[in-house]
Amino acid sequence: MSSNPQVGIVMGSDSDWPVMQAAAEALGEFDVPVEVDVVSAHRMPTEMIDYGRQAAGRGLRVIIAGAGGAAHLPGMLASVTPLPVIGVPVPLKYLDGMDSLLSIVQMPAGVPVATVSIGGARNAGLLAARILASGTDGESAALRERMEAFQAELSAVAHAKGEKLRA
Ligand code: RP5
After folding, report:
1. Would you say residue 2 has pLDDT above 70?
2. Spatial distance between the Cα atoms of 64 and 89, rounded to a whole number of angstroms
3. Is 41 exposed, middle or buried (0-12, 13-18, 19+ CB in 10 A)?
4. What is the mean pLDDT of the chain?
5. Rounded to the nearest whole angstrom, what is the distance from the C-alpha of residue 101 to the centroid of ligand 1?
6. Is 130 helix (H, G, I), strand (E, B) or coil?
7. What role does it play (predicted)?
8. pLDDT tier at 3, thresholds 50, 70, 90
9. How far is CA 165 from CA 31, 47, 160, in A?
10. Considering only Cβ atoms within 10 Å of each terminal Cβ, which end of the chain, N or C, has fewer?
């Protein structure tokens, strides 16, 4: 747990962590402080609602929520917080994560969840970093510069792969 976390990474069970840790790693690459916790929509609904209601007041700016199966956590958090919520569909043993994806992505109008791909926790972390980088203050600008450098590196790697194939 970092001091003054800006992003809350929560999941329905510790069994989601092998997928969700990629979000924490991505944010770590940008030195964004995060907090990580299990907040189950079905097994601890009262605590889950409290987490969503208190997140903005505690200083969090983005929530990344991952869950598998009947994956109601991201949507329920989005219903009680004004913060942007990024949903990560976690694939389980059956249905290849399609159940998780559809549970998260098909939100009613007015309650948005930014859903990434099945198992796409790294992109969830990178999207959270982009959200934090979109502000007008110096900290946001510095983060934006690092994101641009990261994108340039991605491009350089892709170009190098093409050159290798052409050689
Ligand atoms: C969901 O149930 C969790 O997000 C997890 O993906 C799934 C299974 O949980 P466990 O039975 O492994 O605790 O709510």
Report:
1. no
2. 11
3. buried
4. 97
5. 14
6. helix
7. Catalyzes the conversion of N5-carboxyaminoimidazole ribonucleotide (N5-CAIR) to 4-carboxy-5-aminoimidazole ribonucleotide (CAIR).
8. confident
9. 35, 53, 9
10. C
Check whether 122 is labelled as a binding-site residue.
no
Give the predicted TM-score (pTM) of the model.
Answer: 0.96
CA of 117 to the centre of ligand 1 (A): 18
pLDDT tens for residues 29-64?
A: 999 999 999 999 999 999 999 999 999 999 999 999
From the list 158, 66, 73, the residue with the least C-alpha distance to 120 is 66
CA distance 63 to 99: 21
Q: Give the position of tokens 């992003």.
A: 7
Q: Which two tokens stand for residue 95?
A: 């249905």
